[in-house]
Design brief:
Elements (H helix, E strand, L loop, with lengths): L1 H15 L13 E6 L4 H12 L1 H7 L4 E6 H6 L2 H5 L5 E3 L7 H11 L3 E3 L12 H4 L9 E5 L1 E2 L10 H5 L3 E2 L2 H13 L4 E5 L7 E3 L5 E3 H9 L6 E5 L8 H9 L6 E3 L7 H7 L5 H14 L4 E8 L6 H14 L3 E6 L17 H26 L3 E9 L6 E5 L5 E5 L8 E9 L4 E5 L3
Parallel strand pairs: 1-2, 2-3, 3-4, 5-8, 8-11, 12-13, 13-14, 17-19
Antiparallel strand pairs: 6-7, 9-10, 15-16, 15-18, 16-17, 18-19
Helix pairs in contact: 10-11, 11-13, 14-15
The protein binds 5'-deoxyadenosine and iron/sulfur cluster.
Length: 434
């Protein structure tokens, strides 16, 4: 999501002003740091990074440093006390005003902060039609459908930094995706903190929920693949499950964060579902798509997570055979419910649990990779290999990067490739003609 916000920032600045984006910050006049605050580590990273700019500021006293992203809404004005280097603080919902803040700063040379929340359906909505920002991404694109989150999971700072949930109008999303498809985008990734709770209205007043939106988008002919991130299991209702039966364009891969394999911990986290519910959901999806694989998120070392709770998480990984996982060591975040809990799992124990999960997930990934050998997969071709121009590369629905030889430029097509070699981060295959 942050990566997508960075793309938006670049494009707002290019559209509204005569800015040149540099490869390195050494000779920059403006440095924009788009930050995350989901864990304390990201916060520390930002301040360590900031120290690097002292030297640049000494050589260029006009250097402007902007703080964007969730750290700005988390720290607010306090950030100016933490570092003198920061000139502008711009919240995640004010990025469309950044050009204006920069101009104002240059004029008045006074520190500025704008962390107001926007109305997604007004301020930012139709920007893409005015300026084509497809230069970096040619085949696939993110599309925001919902901003903010109302869930208040005990550990999570997002509802505080990104605000209440607001869904974009379906017609606006539809128009944006049509526009992307005209510009050769073949795969879209619908973005939101919790896409399953998307709820909006058509201009005729009819309600549009997430499954309605999926049907609407699947009608866009040139869009070949649909992904969505992130799903919350509790809101993944039967209507959405049915989309896996009816919409072939939804990929055979789903990111479905579970966080823990223990009901005790899920309850403390206020995740609203049990492991039994989660497994049932997985089975319902597999009923329509037996070959679909899942990725997930885990938090290890949550307050009071016992060895028994942790073993339940390992059991779940073995049972579901997740194809990928993001693993996080629990980090207390100010303002959240669990900030008040005793962070009572030792850091070394958190690390041990982290690596145990990683080991299991890595073995799952190997298992799936090996199963792919000598089988045929549909690849959406993204580009030409940098190392060897005779090779093209693309991605399978389960996100494997695959290289294959081709005489024709097939970028943007979906082709059949037989997997022939497996490496850790990519695969090689032979292009099939039929
Ligand atoms: N500590 C560790 N991990 C966290 N996440 C969210 N908040 C925290 C926290 N305080 C993880 C969750 C979520 C992912 C985006 O980040 O696993 O799904
Ligand atoms: Fe955070 Fe996701 Fe829970 Fe929302 S649903 S509070 S973004 S973990």
């Amino acid at each position: 999501m942050n990566h997508y916000d960075s793309i938006k920032i670049i494009n707002y600045l290019k559209y509204y002003g005569n800015y040149k984006i540099l490869e390195s910050f050494d000779y920059a006049d403006i440095i924009i740091l788009n930050t995350c605050s989901i864990r304390e580590k990201s916060e520390n990273k930002f301040f360590n990074f900031l120290n690097k700019f002292n030297k640049i500021k000494k050589n260029n006293s006009n250097l402007i440093i902007c703080l964007c992203g969730c750290l700005s809404t988390q720290l607010k004005k306090k950030v100016f006390n933490k570092s003198n280097l920061i000139d502008i603080v711009c919240g995640p919902q004010s990025i469309h005003k950044l050009h204006y803040l920069i101009e104002k700063f240059i004029k008045n040379n006074k520190k500025l902060i704008d962390i107001k929340s926007f109305n997604i359906n007004k301020n930012i909505n139709n920007f893409n039609y005015k300026y084509n920002f497809l230069k970096n991404i040619k085949i696939y694109s993110y599309v925001s459908i919902i901003e903010g989150c109302n869930n208040y999971c005990s550990y999570c700072i997002v509802p505080f930094t990104r605000g209440k949930q607001v869904s974009r109008y379906p017609e606006d999303i539809f128009k944006e995706i049509c526009n992307l498809s005209i510009n050769n985008i073949k795969e879209i990734n619908l973005l939101g903190q919790n896409v399953n709770s998307y709820l909006s209205k058509f201009s005729n007043g009819n309600k549009c929920d997430f499954s309605d939106l999926l049907y609407l988008i699947s009608d866009i002919k040139k869009i070949k693949r649909i992904r969505f991130t992130t799903s919350h299991p509790f809101y993944f209702n039967d209507k959405i499950i049915n989309c896996y039966k009816n919409i072939d364009k939804i990929v055979n891969f789903l990111h479905l964060p579970v966080q823990s394999g223990s009901n005790k911990i899920l309850k403390l986290m206020k995740r609203k579902y049990s492991i039994e519910f989660y497994k049932d959901l997985i089975n319902k999806i597999l009923f329509f798509r037996p070959n679909l694989t899942f990725s997930t998120d885990f938090i290890v070392g949550y307050p009071n997570e016992s060895e028994k709770d942790f073993l339940l998480t390992l059991d779940l990984i073995k049972e579901i055979k997740f194809d990928h996982s993001y693993i996080f060591m629990y980090s207390p975040r100010p303002g959240t419910l669990s900030y008040n809990f005793d962070d009572n799992i030792d850091i070394n124990e958190k690390k041990r649990r982290f690596f145990e999960i990683k080991k299991l997930i890595d073995s799952n990934v190997n298992y799936y990779n090996n199963n792919m050998l000598n089988n045929i997969y549909k690849i959406l071709v993204e580009g030409i290999s940098k190392k060897n121009k005779k090779y093209l590369f693309g991605r399978t629905e389960n996100n494997r990067k695959v290289f294959f030889k081709s005489k024709n430029c097939l970028i943007g097509n979906i082709v059949n490739v037989k997997i022939k070699k497996i490496y850790n981060n990519y695969l090689y295959g032979n292009l099939l003609t039929t």
